[in-house]
Design goal:
The complex is a heterodimer.
Chain A (H helix, E strand, L loop, with lengths): L1 H14 L8 E4 L2 H15 L4 E2 L12 E5 L2 E3 L4 E5 L4 H8 L3 E7 L3 E2 L2 H13 L6 E5 L21 E7 L5 H12 L12
Parallel strand pairs in A: 1-9, 2-3, 3-6, 4-7, 6-9
Antiparallel strand pairs in A: 4-5, 5-8
Chain B lengths: L3 E5 L3 H5 L2 H13 L2 E4 L9 H5 L3 H15 L5 E3 L2 H14 L9 E3 H5 L9 E8 L3 H4 L6 H8 L2 E5 L15 H4 L1 H12 L9 E4 L2 H13 L5 E4 H5 L25 H10 L4 H22 L3 H17 L1 H14 L3 E5 L2 H14 L4 E4 L3 H6 L1 H7 L3 E4 L2 H8 L16 H10 L17 H25 L2 E4 L3 E3 L4 E6 L3 H7 L3 E7 L3 E2 L5 H13 L6 E5 L7 E7 L3 H5 L15 H5 L1 H6 L10 H7 L20 H5 L6 H14 L4 H15 L2 H16 L5 H6 L13 H5 L4
Parallel strand pairs in B: 1-2, 1-3, 3-4, 5-6, 5-7, 7-8, 9-18, 10-11, 10-12, 12-15, 13-16, 15-18
Antiparallel strand pairs in B: 13-14, 14-17
Classes of the chains: A alpha/beta, B alpha/beta.
Chain lengths: 191, 716
């Protein structure tokens, strides 16, 4: 497992070169992950943070938090299942820093490992019909091949790995308890 | 003890114009302990005819070649290009003729031979790697090894050593100014580095490069490696300019030639294009080298794409069924008009007066942007490069880097004109720009576009995209990007329309692993693009449409040779490496698909049919080297040339000329007579057709009077 995480770290160092935010954060436990996220929310401000149950699609988000169903080590890619809650994804998409949480057991070695099980995961219902695979922040080199980040999307992407496995619902509940709901968010409820 | 006999095949350039190369070859072979036989009845391998689409004429030459050399035990030739032609093409052109394995390129043959003289040559030199030579088995290794043993010869690194010099046989006559410009770009900077000699193992490039350095008064000697090894190479003393005739003296230039020549006049264009292309290529090379089994991945992807095309309708049916089951609305469009009409209908039904659009090559091909604009739809291009070219009212010039040809100053000018920025960024105020200024200004422009377009994203009811792949097994539309404009265009509006060619289908999701490994690496030199969207249903509360465009694809697919071009995954690597594209950029091609890809596709797709287009290539082979799905691009181009020539699209000049070539090449007396007439004309200063083209920017070779094989060959 640690070899896989090291591969991921190397791939992210390439894919996220130039981004200010740490591309890979490893939390030993779910409460540690919550603390890390709460710290980020405090830094960005609650109103400018889009957490998984916030509904706002408006512009101006600075931090977006979501879940990666898989992480691909060789490329540093986070697989986000867009599900039916894509209105939230819209909010996340417009943030300048996106943090995607996953468990270390969700880390796959290769693109091959992901795409070869894709059909099965769809049929089995583990993945919905729409995904985004994110590898580093949004970028362009359309002017004289000079790299500029961001282009239209997030400037930085961070993968937050929780050792062992991700307890997503528990993490989100605990996070809302720490930082509170927004005026536009539901705070608690289904996701 | 009997000495072995080496039979010398003298390439036609050497036979007519560069006798010193043949003489040096004989010296070396004799030193290596061979008796050298020079058959006087030899003519030509037929390559000029084959490469310009006249296989029958080439076949005549090949059959004659077989008759001349059939009984030779060992045939040796001082041109890797001719050797490659014989070895790869003669078995097909002259079946049952010659055992081509007995033909050897001279330096491969001499490699390791005992008895070669110790050569000495005090010069700073670079070693040119001719395209066909470098791409033959063994490549440049023997020549490089032999050159490195020459005492006193200081071989300098040459970044462009393997880039085509622009000769390309009859290409040099049909596109004389481009051909010369390519050669000049190749030798640019050599004089400043103190290079005195260009050493080449092949005679054809030698003639071209020599003509260029002489016409431009460059103090460089172009010499064949055989002469260096045989100690007969002489420094050229006459460094004055040999006035080439000014270009464009011919009356009516074909439209394509005129367009190409116009592009050659744009200051800095070639530098910008080549620099941008190199940026991707260098990263491509280093990342490809780090991926285990890269060539195996290419093989697998090549198989997947062919399998998809072979059973296209079955896979499309499966895609259609599964996508529709998830609520995606599928539309078929037989041609461009129907495709544009379908998109317009979707937008009207959704009451959408504006649409945000991401880059789509099919969109360019069918003229979607213009069609929608004509119908009053406000289409905003959101890919930064496309946005830049849209503001300049021009088409994209590269499939993955649409604004490759535009520098940052021009971007700022367009942004200022259209209110994207209020003032020119301070970085651009100076006369000359440092790298830092450029980087700062590019960043400011990209961020200005981001905030300008963000408003369009938030307000637009409809998003239009292309598609990179369609997965039959799962009904998924796959979209690859870096900027996130596709994610926004597919997530924010209530209607998403993906417009795509029917050939984009692949059988299974597992097939995406090799394809999505190859695509970003080949396109931009990235391990993975920043975002890949897998979309198999509409977003909740929104509609998703897929328009499957034929527009000539089924007809193309039915074509045994040209149909293979549909395996393309649109990475753009073939144009990045293409020496023609690198010199003239994408607009010269006159259609949505530039570079070698354009030569293959524009015949059938889009509405720009230029009969000369397949001839806009030196057939150097660089494109086939990098094609991730192994399309034999030069073979496709050759087939197109053959058809154009046969159909009379090239006019009588080439057709008759090449047929005549075939007859001459099969008849040594006629071949010699033609040679004498040409030589006589050269001496008298006459410049009939092809020579006039050659002389535009290149010094003419000095006539030698008689053919080498007549003057020095064995008597029969």
């Amino acid at each position: 497992m640690s070899g896989r995480v090291e591969t991921l770290r190397g791939a992210l160092a390439d894919a996220c070169a130039g981004q200010e935010e740490e591309p890979l954060v490893i939390a030993a436990t779910t409460p540690d992950a919550v603390s890390h996220l709460a710290g980020l929310v405090a830094r960005h401000g609650r109103e400018r943070s889009r957490l998984p149950r916030d509904m706002s699609r408006g512009d101006g988000a600075s931090l977006g938090v979501g879940r990666a169903r898989f992480v691909i080590a060789e490329t540093g890619t986070a697989v986000v299942d867009l599900g039916t809650e894509e209105d939230q994804a819209g909010g996340t998409l417009l943030a300048s820093h996106v943090v995607l949480a996953a468990g270390t057991r969700d880390v796959l070695d290769t693109l091959e490992a992901f795409y070869s099980r894709y059909s099965e995961e769809r049929t089995g219902g583990a993945l919905g019909p729409r995904q985004a695979l994110l590898t580093g922040g949004s970028r362009t080199a359309d002017i004289e091949k000079i790299l500029v980040m961001p282009a239209h999307g997030p400037a930085a992407v961070t993968i937050l790995l929780v050792e062992g496995g991700l307890e997503w619902e528990a993490l989100v509940d605990a996070l809302y308890e720490r930082v509170g709901p927004t005026a536009t968010g539901r705070g608690r409820g289904t996701s | 003890m009997t000495r072995r006999v080496a039979t010398l095949f003298v390439p036609c350039f050497v036979d007519h114009l560069h006798h010193e190369v043949a003489r040096a070859s004989i010296t070396l072979l004799e030193a290596a302990g061979m008796d050298v036989d020079v058959p006087t009845r030899q003519t030509c391998c037929g390559q000029p005819a084959l490469n310009f689409g006249a296989p029958e004429a080439a076949s005549r030459a090949a059959r004659h070649f077989a008759r001349v050399f059939r009984d030779a035990e060992t045939v040796v030739c001082p041109s890797g290009s001719c050797v490659r032609m014989v070895r790869s093409q003669h078995p097909r052109l002259a079946p049952g003729g010659l055992d081509v394995s007995r033909l050897h390129e001279i330096f491969s043959f001499l490699d390791g031979a005992a008895g070669l003289p110790e050569a000495r040559c005090e010069a700073r030199a670079v070693l040119h790697a001719p395209c066909h030579h470098a791409r033959s088995p063994g490549g440049m290794d023997p020549a490089r090894k032999l050159a490195s043993r020459v005492h006193g010869l200081e071989l300098l690194e040459w970044r462009l050593a393997e880039e085509c010099c622009g000769f390309g046989g009859l290409f040099s006559i049909e596109f004389p100014r481009l051909s010369t410009a390519m050669g000049l770009r190749k030798v640019e900077g050599l004089v400043q580095r103190g290079v005195e000699w260009i050493v080449t193992p092949d005679a054809s490039c030698q003639m071209h490069l020599d003509g260029i350095v002489r016409a431009h008064g460059l103090p460089i000697t172009v010499v064949h490696l055989a002469e260096v090894l045989a100690q007969t190479a002489r420094r050229r003393e006459d460094h004055g300019r040999h006035a080439g005739r000014p270009a464009g003296t011919k009356g009516a230039e074909p439209a394509l030639v005129r367009r190409v020549n116009e592009k050659l006049e744009i200051p800095g264009l070639a530098d910008r294009v080549a620099r941008a292309a190199d940026h991707s290529l260098e990263r491509r090379a280093s990342i490809a080298a780090s991926i285990k089994g890269w060539d195996g991945i290419r093989d697998r992807a090549a198989r997947i794409r062919r399998e998809a095309l072979e059973r296209l309708d079955e896979h499309l049916g499966s895609f259609r069924k599964r996508a529709a089951a998830s609520g995606v609305e599928i539309h078929d469009a037989a041609d461009a008009a129907q495709a544009c009409g379908t998109v317009l209908g979707i937008l009207r039904e959704a009451n959408a007066g504006t649409a945000i659009k991401s880059k789509s090559m099919v969109g360019e091909e069918i003229g979607l942007g213009e069609a929608l604009a004509r119908s009053g739809i406000d289409v905003v291009e959101t890919d930064l490069g496309e946005f830049i070219v849209q503001l300049g009212h021009e088409p994209p010039s590269h499939i993955t880097a649409p604004a490759l040809h535009v520098d940052v100053r021009e971007v700022a000018r367009r942004f200022l004109d259209h209110g994207v920025i209020d003032a020119t960024p301070p970085e651009l105020e100076g006369e000359t720009l440092s790298e830092r200024d450029r980087a700062g200004a590019a960043r400011a422009m990209a961020l200005a576009a981001r905030s300008h377009l963000r408003k369009a994203f938030l307000g637009s009811p409809a998003g239009i995209t292309g598609a990179n792949f369609l997965v039959a097994e799962t009904g998924t539309v796959v979209l690859v990007e870096n900027e996130s404009n596709i994610r926004l265009a597919t997530t924010l509006p209530r209607v998403h329309v993906a417009v795509t060619g029917i050939e984009k289908v692949v059988p299974a999701a597992a097939d995406l692993a090799p394809l999505l490994t190859l695509l970003p690496v080949s396109a931009t030199g990235q391990r993975q693009s920043a975002a890949v969207s897998l979309l198999g249903s509409p977003r909740r509360g929104a509609r998703m449409h897929v328009v499957l465009v034929d527009a000539g694809r089924r007809a193309l697919l039915a074509d045994e040779v040209l149909g293979d071009a549909l395996a393309c995954i649109r990475c753009g690597a073939c144009m990045n490496v293409c020496p023609v594209f690198r010199t003239v950029g994408g607009h010269a091609y006159g259609g949505p698909y530039p570079g070698p890809l354009g030569l293959m596709l524009l015949e059938e797709l889009g509405d720009s049919h230029d009969p000369l287009l397949p001839f806009l290539s030196t057939l150097c082979g660089a494109c086939a080297d990098v094609c991730p799905v192994r399309i034999p691009i030069p073979d496709v181009i050759l087939e197109l040339r053959r058809r154009h020539l046969e159909a009379g699209l090239m006019g009588l000049r080439w057709k008759a000329g090449l047929a005549c070539f075939g007859l001459l090449a099969a008849s040594p007396p006629m071949w010699s007579l033609a040679s004498r007439i040409g030589s006589w004309a050269l001496r008298r200063g006459a410049r009939p057709g092809p020579l006039a083209s050659w002389a535009a920017g290149r010094a003419l070779p000095r006539p030698t009077g008689r053919r080498f094989v007549e003057a020095h060959g064995r008597k029969e």
